[in-house]
Please model this.
Amino acid sequence: MSEHSHGGDRPPVSVRAEALEALLTERGLVKPEVLDGFISRFVNDVGPMNGAKVVAKAWTDDDYRQRLLEDGTAAIAELGFSGPQGEHMVVIENTDDVHNVVVCTLCSCYPWPVLGLPPEWYKDPAYRSRIVRDPRTLLGEMGLDLDDDTEVRVWDSSAENRYLVLPQRPDGAEGLSEEDLAGLVTRDAMVGVAKVSAP
Ligand code: FE
Model:
């Protein structure tokens, strides 16, 4: 396995992480303040805005959109976004006929360089099981009502692939700059549990 493995009945990741941090600190291999800086970077500096810039560029530059769908990792790196948990990015595009939604059924694999750290609900066992069994109902509960004839595709993340949903550009956003478009794009839309609304 590469940077991240899946396990069965193990203690929660937070407990394992604390144990690991304590062990590594005790052995002098890491400094807690370095870890804190790393976490702060992904929580405060990255956030979902990197992903929003990727989406806005794809909406306004069709050549970029094609490259993004063909090789997500490379196209995202063009904008300077890369690093841990983002080495194998696959971008999937929502259309009038297909709605994509992302999960990690076994833990919480998530594309950090474009979305930051995952929200709590993404790590919740209820989300991880129900989005697979009955995505339409759960999406409805989360506020996303899809047409009956829209096909829902659920993508299960892993160490091999991290997914980013390319949402549909909303009607009524014509004439907006790329920067203003990025401001409309939410984290939830890029996980696939929401759509992007017009301003
Ligand atoms: Fe995972």
Summary: The beta strands are 89-93, 98-103, 151-156, 162-166. The mean pLDDT is 89. The chain has two domains: 9-45, 49-191.
